[in-house]
Amino acid sequence: MHDDSTRSLPFPALRRRGFLAATGLGALTLTGCGGGSGSDSDDGAGDGSPKKGGRLRAAFAGGGASETLDPHLANLFADVARAKALFDKLADYGADLSAQPRLAAKWESNKTLDRWRVTLREATFHDGSPVTAQDVLYSYRRIADPKQAFRAKASLEPIDLDASRATGERVIEFVLKRPTAEFPNVLAAFGAYIVPENATGFDKEPVGSGPFRFVSFAPGRSAVFRRYDDYWEGAPHLDEIEFVVANEESARVNALLGGQVEYAHELNPTTARAHEDQGRIEIVRLRGSAMQAFCMKTDRPPFDDERVRQAFFLIADRRELVDGALSGAGEVGNDLFGKGYEYYADGLPQREQDLGKARALLKQAGAEGLKVTLDTSAVAAGFTEAAGIFRDQAKKAGVTVEVRMGSKDSYWSDILDNGSLCCYRSGAMPIEAHISQRLLTDSTTNATKWRHKDFDALYQQAQSTRDKTERAAVYERMQRRLYGEGGFLIWGFADWIIGTARGVKGVDAEAPANTLDWARFDTVWLA
């Protein structure tokens, strides 16, 4: 791993001792350089005109020493922010969650929706080689490798990759296993990044086609990327972006207040309220952007009995959870993902707490006096608060909930297969993508272990249905089943809160987390 980030730019060196004094914590370490405000470029000024130059330092919660720059393994928000800086997908989700062309210039289907032709735009990788159809096929075949557990695998399942082929240097004919009306969503799937043919060794010197190129990477600490001048959509304004890991929200906030970073991802509502309109930092709220839930594993006791799951749905006082865990910065959920999104089943009655009925269901299930462990962590804003609130709510129904604190570094990998009940959250994605990545038998991030072949068949039916009204009816049928017996107790949708230095401009205030313009640093500049 090389690091020439301190040799060529006119930034003053950051004094680590001063940083630690400012934060009071040693969890966040920065490489090499100070803030971008030291850039001597002056080809823009004020708030309106983008200014070239500088390094922006962005603080995210990370995944510890196991972090990787392999874009197909991206899972955490820090992973995705780094991946989208280095790589591109064929499409990505706009703020309305519709698929927007990226490396794909256009796509078109045949009349039966089982063949789609995708034409690539002219773009190059960081080594100057063109992005070709063969690169796309290699990337998708790598993701679909049955020996691997890449997150986008379930989303790419409709594609027959053996039959799909390049029909030109920049044209791919995708042959599908069945008609798929919303195939562009497949191209935009979480983790479906395009890498050069035969690419390996992503943590040493990854080559992508994104707006920034690799400089250095220290897992669990930092990553530095430099502007790629030949980026197909135009070179970024910044000279460099540095991603720094700070798992404690307090470390991110104090680093921002102390001028040690210019962008702090995921602040809690109390912090935001304390600093909003105070003149020191800017607060950006992405309204209702993050699903908040408890995840019940349906393949093991006690949640392999749907009556226990139904009882837990009725134990939750969602308004108390939103007010207490989110300080009111969000809205109540109804045990379904994607409130307000296309296909959301908004006709189902809003669940309210009913402790008497919950007790009756537990008695029917032989689960009176139930004791269960709820895994949580300070890895995400509101998690520990939500766990404490739900513990107290469950006690009123005769259920003893033991709250177990997990590691911030490994929480997400730990809870995927272990335990029976945990705190969970998600950024934005289409309901179709949520189902394909989390609720199918072969989904690699199926944290509720919801595995039902008939449910899989309904998903395939929805994909294959050309008429949008009929397709919506299938999705509603699926959601009704999840509402009645699923494993996600979705109690709220939180505002996603970001803090920036006052001189940071170009941060999109409308893009939900996980979408194209969220954590998009090629359009940001330092005023």
TrEMBL record:
Domain Solute-binding protein family: 100-427
Alphabetical list of SUPFAM superfamilies matching this protein: Periplasmic binding protein-like II (SSF53850)
Source species of the chain: Streptomyces caelestis
Cellular component GO terms held in the UniProt record: ATP-binding cassette (ABC) transporter complex; periplasmic space
GO MF, one annotated term: peptide transmembrane transporter activity
Lineage top rank: taxon: Bacteria
Region annotation (Disordered) ranges: 36-58
Protein name: Peptide ABC transporter substrate-binding protein
Short name of any one Pfam family annotated for the protein: SBP_bac_5
GO biological process, one term: peptide transport
CDD domains, alphabetized: PBP2_NikA_DppA_OppA_like_17
